[in-house]
Specification:
Blueprint lengths: L14 E3 L8 E3 L4 E5 L5 H10 L5 E2 L7 E2 L10 E2 L1 E3 L10 E4 L6 E5 L3 H25 L2 E8 L5 E8 L2
Helix pairs in contact: 1-2
């Protein structure tokens, strides 16, 4: 389908009602990058947990420098310190972590935010809890993210004496 100069097109796979007229027609909407705070985690713990989960990520060869997320047409160019490719954990867009000013933030497409909360953040926090308990108490420990009674992920820790 050819497009004329100045014509607006909508990208993405979700639908939203058109603002014009009172009709109930739908069109795809664009995806935008959003940020979510990852509290109480150090950069070292983050990198270790990602590696333990078998997730490959890129960092800049220059210390402290950022990489740019590729994203898609409407939301390219967000800087991150750790970047993961689109398709990882079935994501639609690439995503990463911004680790400046002592804070860590997940930067991802809004279409992937819920998916990453359950498939990335919950298992990542479980790995971090596991490592902290193991280092502090010198015991064998396994931690996993499981659905809680209300459906949200909960971290379940199993400790055994060495």
């Amino acid at each position: 389908m050819p497009y004329s100069r100045g014509q607006s097109i909508a990208l993405g796979s979700r639908s939203a009602p058109l603002a014009s007229g009172g009709e109930s027609r739908h069109h795809p909407v664009v995806s935008q990058y959003v940020e979510a705070e990852v509290a109480g985690v150090t950069v070292e713990e983050l990198a270790r947990a990602l590696a333990e989960l078998g997730l490959n990520f890129q960092t800049s060869p220059r210390s402290g420098a950022t990489l740019m997320l590729e994203g898609c047409l409407e939301s390219a160019g967000r800087p991150v310190h750790l970047r993961l490719d689109a398709g990882v954990l079935d994501t639609a867009e690439d995503f990463g972590f911004l680790t400046d000013t002592g804070r860590i933030r997940l930067v991802c497409g809004d279409v992937d935010r819920g998916l990453l909360a359950t498939r990335l953040l919950a298992p990542m926090h479980a790995k971090i809890v596991e490592a902290r308990i193991r280092a502090t108490h010198h015991v064998s420990v396994t931690a996993s993210a499981e659905a809680s009674e209300i459906g949200d992920p909960a971290i379940v820790v199993r400790v055994t004496e060495d």
